[in-house]
Fold these 2 entries.
Entry 1:
Amino acid sequence: MRTRLMSAPLGLVIENLDVKDVGRSEVTELNELFCRHKVLVFRDQDLTPGDQREFAELWGELVPFPYGGLKGQPNIVELRNRGKRQDVNQHWHTDMSYEVEPPKLTMLYAIETPEIGGATAFANQNLAYADLSPGLCQILDGVFARHSAEDLARLFGADEKAAAQANHPIVRTHDETGEKALYLCKAFTKNFCDWSREESKPMLDYLFEHSVRPEYQARHEWRPGDLLMWDNRSLLHYAVHDHGDQSRLLHRLQIKGSRPL
Ligand SMILES: O=C(O)CCC(=O)C(=O)O
Ligand SMILES: [Fe+2]
């Protein structure tokens, strides 16, 4: 396998592997790379939605998506450029942290990509945690926060009060590597459990800013045929909408995760 690092904080690019040739035994090896680098990019793939699903199923169970999928592949959704104002993913987040068991990984396959722009940015939350002072770590370890989909619900005109929510530890231990990561995002994390929102805000604002320092970040500039997967247990991500009206079409799916501990 020919590989190269994507950036200093995270990511591994794999140049010469057709994921259609990958079976169970290779996935064990790939999973070690995935857990270490947190983003894997497989270049130059030629995949039908069925091929993408088959590869994804080697990593776990697909999570059905509430907002409708492709015909015949209900667990795969199209991400299309609908214009900057309607891009619901243009903010730092970890996918569906308002669920009790958020997806452990998300996988995107690029079909059409802009000539320039339209990158996905990532921020490594193991590094963000490691830079906190021992004093702050002591305070945060064991503290839970409430994550809610209320802002998403408002955006979609749905009932905010019925929006999904879940409480998770603010410092999460990776279920496979045992590494600790900050686990919060401005989009979904509303307050520390048993604290009011006003009390929580100053510390949360500090952590939101800290968690996306440039030295934790990387960007993936897409090419058609890229298959990319990221670890929601240890990364934040952000869809950078700087490509105007140029078309961008990705096929997205996500794999079931366990309750953050
Ligand atoms: O379109 C992208 O670059 C990422 C979108 C996103 O946030 C997601 O698929 O979870
Ligand atoms: Fe996302």
Entry 2:
Amino acid sequence: MLVNYDTVSASDIYKLMSQSVIPRPIAWVVTESNGVVNVAPFSYFTGLSSNPPTMLFSVGHKSDGTPKDTLRNLRETQKCTVCIASEAQLEQLHLSSKELEAHVSEAEHFAIPHTRPVPGYPPMIEGAPVAFFCDFYSEVDLGESKTIPLIVEIKSQFVDVVCITDEERMTITFDPIARIGKSYAYLGEERTPPPIP
Ligand SMILES: Cc1cc2nc3c(=O)[nH]c(=O)nc-3n(C[C@H](O)[C@H](O)[C@H](O)COP(=O)(O)O)c2cc1C
């Protein structure tokens, strides 16, 4: 089957892409505005470059057409903390995707514990194996699109010591959650690459 994207609806394109470009990592993004801690997951997410250390996640709009809180807060404060959730945090991560009013904190509403290891940046979710403390870098212009890809620059990274398997070689291991379509997946077994002759 060959699907010409000019002939299918935006929702079918979403279904096709989100089940084909897989597995997607999930950015569990914490932002703040006026003391309200906002938490939300985003799976149109990837690393861009290690130099400068940058990542990208795409944020859409709320059902009423206004920018999602994450987008608004990032534009306002220029800061975000991107956590990577472990398998044990699946329920908290999923709950935090609920569309709440801007003045309501997902962290408070769902009792998601958080802690602030880096002053000047939003808190990270307690128990996350990894978190990145980031400055807003730029937005990607996709014309009329209501989805805005946001580039953020990593200024520091937290790694839970229990995930560090070899400190000298900077080797870390944990159990992340991925997204496939609208489902979740765990990574399972890692494979060593075969030698290239
Ligand atoms: C696992 C998961 C991944 C998601 N990925 C995205 C995404 O890439 N982009 C997006 O706009 N919304 C995504 N969502 C929906 C947002 O999390 C949801 O709209 C959330 O309410 C946004 O919160 P905010 O208004 O506090 O920023 C995802 C939801 C889930 C459960």
